[in-house]
Design goal:
Blueprint lengths: L8 H9 L6 E5 L2 H10 L7 E5 L5 H7 L5 E7 L4 H5 L25 H7 L2 H12 L4 H11 L5 H12 L11 H11 L2 H15 E11 L2 H14 L22 E3 L5 E2 L2 H6 L7 E7 L3
Parallel strand pairs: 1-2, 3-4
Antiparallel strand pairs: 4-7, 5-7, 6-7
Helix pairs in contact: 3-10, 6-7, 6-9, 7-8, 10-11
The structure holds S-adenosylmethionine.
The site of S-adenosylmethionine (SAM) has 23 residues, from helix 1 and strand 1.
Length: 286
């Protein structure tokens, strides 16, 4: 199962690796991404099931379509190049577009709503929590006093002035604000938190769960989930203090203790791989 089809790059590799019979369930919350993947994977259409859905629902969707158990689940988090480069989606702080940032255009909350309606304190907390933005209070104050803010560039300018970016800084001063809004708009951490146990529950023994994350908040959720699920006892007093009262049994075996990162060569040809971290765990026999 590929929970984040995007442009279908990983799906294509999975289909080729599992030829001639492997079947793939591919999800994406974004109907435009699903269309791109569908076209790219035309040659394999008899082996792919495309579903426009949030991967938070995979625990219900997969069994309903006969994908239970599965041999592997991949989540390649975040946004696709196409979403980032399409100005009208409002994900990029480099191109003028509406403040949207929804993966699923049918969902109700857009970045425009949050930017123009949240109370100053709520906005500051959101920027601090989801963007780890140290200047959250000043940025929230500037946003509230500049309302209405209608476009990505307008927001990027307001934030840049409030954050007073350092000259030569590696990232744009509004990067953290845009990350925070995108995470909140799509409830990205909530979806991941729901998907991990559901994906684990679908795996056949020996099946693998692979997650690629692009920022520390996501990676922490995956790391902590893998750590907990690879331990037989999760009693708060620690595993060596008998008697164990939690009755927890490890369901996963961690394949790589450290996250797998892109090589210098890959980063040279694909700069977006720079912050990618891949964690992989294997389902244990029960
Ligand atoms: C990094 S891209 C995936 C790229 C893909 N692996 C490829 O090879 O082309 C992430 C994709 O996940 C989708 N996405 C993000 N959050 C999602 C969620 N909660 N449920 C389903 N799809 C999601 C986005 O719409 C985007 O298309």
């Amino acid at each position: 199962m590929d929970g984040t089809l995007g442009a279908g790059g990983h799906a294509l590799a999975l289909l080729e690796a599992t030829a001639p019979d492997g079947e793939l369930l591919g999800l994406d919350a974004d109907p435009a991404a699903l269309e791109i993947a569908r076209q790219r994977l035309t040659a394999y259409s008899n082996r792919v099931h495309f579903v426009n859905a949030n991967f938070a629902e995979l625990g219900e969707i997969a069994p309903a379509l006969g994908f239970s158990p599965v041999h592997g689940v991949l989540l390649d988090l975040g946004l696709s190049s196409s979403e980032l480069e399409t100005a009208a989606r409002g994900f990029s702080l480099q191109v003028e577009g509406p403040l949207d940032m929804r993966h699923d255009p049918a969902s109700s909350t857009s970045a425009h709503y949050l930017v123009n309606n949240l109370a100053q304190d709520e906005l500051a907390n959101l920027l601090y929590r989801f963007g780890e933005e140290r200047r959250s209070r000043g940025i929230a104050r500037a946003i509230v006093s500049s309302r209405p803010i209608l476009t990505t560039i307008q927001l990027a300018d307001v934030v840049s002035r409030a954050a007073g970016g350092r000259r030569g800084a590696r990232i744009h001063p509004a990067t953290r604000t845009f990350q925070a809004l995108r995470i909140a708009v799509n409830d990205e951490l909530g979806a991941l938190t729901r998907a991990l146990p559901a994906a684990t529950g679908l795996l056949t023994p020996g099946g693998r769960l692979a997650v690629i994350s692009f920022h520390s908040l996501e990676d922490r959720i995956v790391k902590e989930f893998f750590n907990r699920e690879s331990r037989d006892c999760i009693c708060p007093q620690g595993p060596y203090m008998l008697p164990c009262t939690c009755d927890h049994h490890a369901t996963l075996h961690i394949i790589a203790k450290k996250p797998i990162i892109a090589s210098a060569l890959e980063i040279a040809t694909n700069s977006r791989a720079r912050s990618a971290k891949l964690r992989v765990a294997e389902r244990k026999e029960t």
